[in-house]
Recover the amino acids of this structure.
């Protein structure tokens, strides 16, 4: 059953009518097939019109859509001979970060993703995609493994942010994130990151300090959630939409600001309406990026990656 967002109400009404018509007996007075076809055309036009003018807050809602493909969906479809790896070898396993080694288009890769889960039970298991320190230390372990064997790294970012609980802070959340960023920047192998949903704060940057950073068209990337920003600046969630607009969280904004490298287009109506097409397109983009980056030696990769992020900090000076 499709879940509709608030601004998709006209689409929901049209698709509800189509569903009703399909359950009606054909009396001969009305050609149901023709009417369904007419309404389907109308649905496509309505989706196209709606998604052509999404506000930043509406894109946040699309990025969080429950049916949007999450990291494990990408891994299952794109990575052949996938061997998952678990644990940080220091404290334990964190299901919010999944990862392992496999082949992408015949090329060996280490893949790391933040997994939100697809239903209530799996969301609880994966802590809604919010990693604890052991998750980031697992990511570091996998990145160092890739570096040791000369295998490129692919990261799939989808988190509202690192877990802010007392247990996470007690185990060194800030240090784990900082060390993960440092590990990203020190790799001598290609590192490609794709923000597939939410890219929240240091929780996202910890695995997205990459040679190439891509965003899906309806994903978002920000230092804090719009709700968090509104509660700080306006002391009210009533200004969440204003915060989303002011923060420049969308892929188009961040491409213009040169924070990311490219925007990956989504099928009409968002990734949740055609998950497989979205995943395949992301895989194609990653494959092309790895082919280009594989031509660079380790020192050049480190230098270009570090210069890229240092340049971002200098632009505002």
């Amino acid at each position: 059953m499709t879940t509709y967002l608030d601004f998709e109400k006209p689409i929901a009404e049209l698709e509800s009518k189509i569903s009703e018509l399909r359950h009606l007996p054909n009396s001969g007075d009305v050609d149901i097939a023709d009417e369904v076809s007419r309404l389907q055309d109308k649905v496509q036009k309505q989706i196209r019109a709606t998604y052509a003018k999404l506000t930043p807050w509406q894109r946040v809602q699309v990025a969080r859509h429950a049916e949007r493909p999450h990291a494990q969906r990408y891994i299952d479809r794109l990575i052949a001979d996938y061997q998952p790896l678990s644990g940080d070898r220091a404290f334990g396993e964190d299901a919010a970060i999944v990862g392992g080694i496999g082949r992408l288009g015949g090329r060996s890769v280490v893949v790391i993703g933040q997994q939100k889960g697809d239903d209530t039970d799996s969301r609880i298991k994966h802590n809604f995609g919010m990693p604890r320190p052991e998750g980031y230390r697992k990511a570091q372990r996998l990145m160092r493994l890739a570096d040791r064997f000369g295998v490129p790294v692919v990261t799939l970012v989808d988190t509202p942010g690192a877990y802010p609980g007392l247990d996470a802070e007690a185990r060194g959340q800030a240090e784990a994130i900082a060390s993960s960023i440092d590990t990203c920047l020190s790799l001598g192998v290609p590192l490609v990151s794709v923000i597939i949903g939410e890219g929240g704060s240091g929780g996202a940057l910890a695995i997205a300090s990459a040679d190439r950073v891509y965003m899906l068209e309806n994903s978002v990337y920000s230092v804090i959630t719009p709700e968090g920003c509104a509660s700080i600046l306006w002391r009210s969630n009533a200004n969440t939409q204003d915060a989303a607009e002011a923060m420049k969280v969308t892929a188009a904004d961040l491409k213009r600001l040169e924070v990311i490298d490219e925007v990956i287009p989504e099928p009409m109506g968002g990734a949740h309406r055609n998950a497989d097409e979205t995943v395949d397109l992301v895989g194609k983009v990653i494959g092309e990026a790895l082919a280009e980056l594989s031509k660079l030696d380790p020192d050049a990769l480190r230098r270009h990656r570090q210069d890229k992020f240092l340049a971002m900090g200098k632009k505002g000076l």
Summary: The mean pLDDT is 93. Residues 60-314 form a domain with the 2-enoyl-CoA Hydratase; Chain A, domain 1 fold (CATH 3.90.226.10).
